[in-house]
Amino acid sequence: MSFDTIIANGTVVNANGSEQADVAVSGETIAKVGRGLAKKAADGARIIDAKGCYVIPGGIDVHVHLALPFCGTVSADDYDSGTKAAARGGVTTVIDFAIPYGDETLHDALNNWKNKAAGKACVDYTFHIAVTKWDRHRHEMRALVDAGFPTFKQFMIYAKEGWQADDAAIFGALEQCRELGGMLLVHCESSRVLDELIERHHTEDEMHRLGARLHAVTRPNYIEYEAIQRAVTWAEATGGRLYVVHMSTAEGTDIIRRAHKRGLDHVFAETCAQYLVLDDSLFDGPDGHLFACCPQIKKKRDQRRLWDGLVDGDVCAVSTDTCTFTREQKAMWNGDWTKIPMGLPGLETLLPIVYTHGVLKGRLKMRQFVNLVSTNPAKIMGLYPTKGVITRGADADIAIIHPKKRLTVEPGQMETNCDWSPYGGWSLAGFARTTLSRGRVIVDDYRFCGENGWGRLLTRKSAGKA
Ligand code: URP
Ligand code: ZN
Ligand code: ZN
Known about the structure:
Oligomer: single chain
Bound molecules: N-(aminocarbonyl)-beta-alanine, zinc ion
Largest sheet: 9 strands, mixed
Strand content: 15-25%
Structural class: alpha/beta
Number of strands: 21
Helix content: 25-40%
């Protein structure tokens, strides 16, 4: 038998179970999964020994922002550093957001983001398309779906960026998604009340006394869950597929659970790694402003409910919302929390965080872990079964992880452009010992060895089917 590469002796884990098996790769795809393939292989096949390791489908981070102009600066991880970081973390596909600025059309935005990625991306990628000017952009949605971009994004906040969508726009976009077979991703935060709370607390005295803590003070849990309830209501009324991004609250998880109990299987919600392991006590530290992201990190009780949601299946995926800002960029806040560039780095640590705090802490079984970081994201975003599974015919996007070997998170030794990490000094297992992207080894012995421009733009035919 002639194969290019065989991953031998590992434990292959898919979302439906695991087996001791070899994985044979021909060209860019998986040719065979079975026992003893390495022994029967013709000379010339590269054998990668995975003895004692898990062999899993590459991670799929469906929520990243690379080189995003935002909050008066541009996020520090671009398609070079961001996709290298992805690879080192075992993530082989990223989905970014193409966002129109000013009078740009959806096609302009898509072209801008294609240009950011072209020649740089080291792993495969595609885009959700942000609908920021409903009256104009609504007419373009069908063409985008036809071109292979069936997922759209709306933000309930960010008026200053020119991105905000009101209820009528969200209602209309959900109707369109039902009609076109697309799916709408929504950033759910209640802007009117949020703005009111920001105004009330925006005093010299409070900023002096409370600093970055005001980020949490002005975003109590109801800022998120009222907005999630509203989005779910519009999804129920229209029948349009809804995907709630970066859900951070216990109450939000309860709303999604109740929606599923009512039979709303077209409503999905993700959470992000940071909401599972960080809590808002960080805002009281000297570096509290570094941790500001939207929505902000919440409390331990929210973490617990989100983990339960992942186990129950109500929360369908873990992503990162990677939106990296360096210490220098974060320093733009100068004591005013409303000026902090909002966002965190995360691509390189997604799988390690969920593996270490999910699987090793006994919260998740290995197959659930694979489901949450790869298979479900692939299914819901229309990439399955090309991505998200180790089976014959799928792309050979594979991460090999050692079950116990831990690395200490040290930003200076990572691929990200960030000079700090929310997890700095943490000891994490689950980094990729080896990563393959479409059959090519791009991480070897925990080090990136891929190539800019290898990553391919993916198009999709459907979205919102788990
Ligand atoms: O703080 C965040 N999340 N920055 C990126 C923009 C967004 O809301 O996803
Ligand atoms: Zn958001
Ligand atoms: Zn985001």
